[in-house]
Write a structure and sequence with these properties.
251 residues; globular; 8 helices; mainly alpha
Length: 251
C-alpha cells in the first residue's frame, strides 16, 4: 500500500463522548472520591480510577470485538465494533496523557509511552482501517492485569499510613507479579513474534504500509521490554524484602 494512497477518516462521534466520560470520572475521583487523600496522591489515585474504568472493560470489549469477526486475521479490515473499542481506548490514553502533562510533565517515559500507544491505535483506526485484530489482542493482553495493578498501585500509595492498605499490598503483590510476568514475559512476546512473522511475509503490504506495521512492532517491542524491566525490578525488591523479614525473624 502506497503512503500517498492513505486517506484519513474524520474523528468519530464516539471518541469525544468517551473522552468526556473519562474526564468526568477523573474530576469526580479527584474532587470527591479521593478528596480526603493528600494533594500529592490524588492525581495518581484519579488516574487509577479512569484506568479501572478502561482496563477490565477493554479486555472484554476487545475479546468480544475479535470473536464477533469470523474473518479476523492480522490484516483484516476493522469492523465497526472493533473501531468502537479502539475509540474507547484512544479516549482513555488521551485523558491519561492529559493527566501526565498537567501533573507529571517531567515523566517522559509515561508520556512517550502514551504518545506511542496513541500512534498505534490512531493509525489503525483512522489511517489504514485494517489490523485491529492484532492491536486488540495486544490491548487485551496489556489490560488483563489492569484490575490487579490499579488496586496494587492504590494500596502501595497508602501502605505507609494505612495498615489495611499495607496488608492488601503484601497479599496482592506475589500473584500480581506472577500474572504480569507470564503475560508480559511470555504470552505477549509470543504474540508479537506471530504478528511480526505475518507482516514480514508481505501478506499485509497491500492494506497496511510497511512503515506503519514496522512502527507498530517497534512500539510494542519497546513497551514489552520496559514492562519486563519494571516487573524484574519489582521481583528483586520483593525478594530483598522477604530476605530482610527472614533475617529479622532469625534475630
Amino acid at each position: 500500500m502506497d503512503t500517498q494512497s492513505l486517506q484519513f477518516s474524520p474523528i468519530s462521534n464516539s471518541l469525544p463522548l468517551f473522552f468526556t466520560g473519562y474526564l468526568i470520572l477523573y474530576l469526580l475521583a479527584y474532587f470527591f472520591i479521593f478528596r480526603a487523600w493528600s494533594q500529592k496522591l490524588r492525581p495518581e489515585a484519579s488516574s487509577c480510577a479512569i484506568s479501572l474504568a478502561h482496563g477490565t472493560p477493554a479486555v472484554f470489549l476487545a475479546a468480544a470485538a475479535i470473536l464477533s469477526d469470523p474473518a479476523r486475521n492480522f490484516h483484516s479490515p476493522n469492523t465497526p465494533f472493533q473501531s468502537l473499542v479502539l475509540d474507547y481506548s484512544i479516549a482513555y490514553f488521551l485523558m491519561d496523557l492529559l493527566h501526565y502533562l498537567i501533573f507529571y510533565p517531567s515523566d517522559l517515559l509515561f508520556i512517550g509511552h502514551h504518545l506511542a500507544t496513541l500512534f498505534v491505535f490512531m493509525t489503525c483506526r483512522y489511517v489504514v482501517y485494517h489490523g485491529s485484530f492484532a492491536i486488540l489482542v495486544l490491548l487485551a493482553l496489556a489490560e488483563v492485569t489492569s484490575l490487579c495493578q490499579n488496586v496494587w498501585t492504590l494500596a502501595s500509595a497508602r501502605k505507609s499510613d494505612l495498615k489495611f492498605a499495607a496488608k492488601v499490598y503484601d497479599i496482592l503483590s506475589p500473584p500480581f507479579y506472577a500474572l504480569y510476568s507470564v503475560v508480559r514475559g511470555f504470552v505477549g512476546p509470543y504474540f508479537v513474534y506471530r504478528m511480526f512473522s505475518f507482516y514480514l511475509s508481505g501478506a499485509a503490504d497491500s492494506v497496511i504500509p510497511k512503515w506503519i506495521w514496522i512502527s507498530w512492532v517497534i512500539v510494542v517491542v519497546m513497551a514489552i521490554s520496559v514492562s519486563i524491566l519494571w516487573i524484574l525490578n519489582l521481583w528483586i525488591d520483593f525478594f530483598r524484602e522477604m530476605e530482610k523479614k527472614s533475617e529479622k525473624k532469625v534475630r
